Amino acid sequence: MANILEQVGMGESVLTGKKAWTYAEEILLQVSRTFALNINVLKGKLHKSILLAYLFLRIADTVEDDPVMDADEKEHLLSLFADIFRTADLAEEAVEAFENALPDEWRRSEHPYMNLCLHTHVVVPLLKELPEVYASPVRDVTIEMCGGMAQFAKRQEEALSQGWFTLETVADLDEYCYYVAGIVGRLLSHLFAADTCFIGNARKAEMQKLDVSFGLALQVANIVKDCREDAERRVCFIPEEICRKHGFKHSYEMFEDVANVEDRADFDRRRSAVMAELVQKTWKHLDDAIAYTKLIPNIKMRTRLFCLWPLFMAAENMKIIGDGSPIFANDKKMKITRDTVKRIVKSTSLHFYSDNWIDKAYKAVKGK
Known about the structure:
Layout: H1 17-31, H2 35-39, H3 44-64, H4 71-84, H5 92-101, H6 112-117, H7 120-123, H8 132-160, E1 165-166, H9 170-195, H10 201-208, H11 211-232, E2 235-236, H12 240-245, H13 264-294, H14 301-321, H15 338-351, H16 355-366
Parallel strand pairs: 1-2
Helix pairs in contact: 1-3, 3-8, 3-9, 4-5, 4-8, 8-9, 9-10, 9-11, 11-13, 11-14, 13-14, 14-15
């Protein structure tokens, strides 16, 4: 089958049924750097619901992350997008209103993110093909994330007008991470329970105590890994209160030109100490996320692998970052190799059913 992305123009209303699902599958590979791998290990209604949830949240994130739009415009677009999901019928008029409000320059772009946004009318109706027990949590999480993103878009615009966007406290970091990732953990608990009778109310309640940490583990790991790239656009998610504890007046001072630093050794020690706190925060969330994964019945191989792959990749990234100092040691971004990814996929595929193996393998990476 020819690539369906090459068959359609931006915003053309030509895809329904199987062709629409094919578009959704192919655009996923274009807009996801990492999650396409574990989303595609799933099958059936669980696969479809998580695929659509990812695409909807990617649309919202594309709006929130646009470097040209002001915060009011982002808030308006995010509100229009959220309006689509306020009723189960996913009104065509609401979809049309959102697409018509998108920036004109997006219609001339070849970027897959914009392509997806302009094909909202293709992917949204697919949710109506799923049972309500799958569709309702997806609608809810999309609405909630749009509200959170609009809030942070305003805060970021105000802060950047003064120079940098920063977060004051660890609580602020947790709030930000909740809206961009933690609520995804909440969504997963609902969808995992919908997908099997082996997750009853009691087990689901146990999972819900840990599910936000599942999302936060992956998000904080990304913040640690991407902090230098974020700094290039004058954004720093490292809480100011942690930085002050280690002698920095502001978090962004860690990314200053080291040529201006009088005591380089002390400077390196202090910023490594800051990053080490975030690394430890990530490990704590990873501990919870591993416990969360073990609550998934071990007969659900694909569901466990969906969780294990990104968690072990995040753990391996934290292992190479260590005390935080390697982040600043060279110009290359710290990240695991393809061989490490292949090893994780292979080993977890062989041992996914064993809680004992998961514990031992995780502790081996963590070094405890």
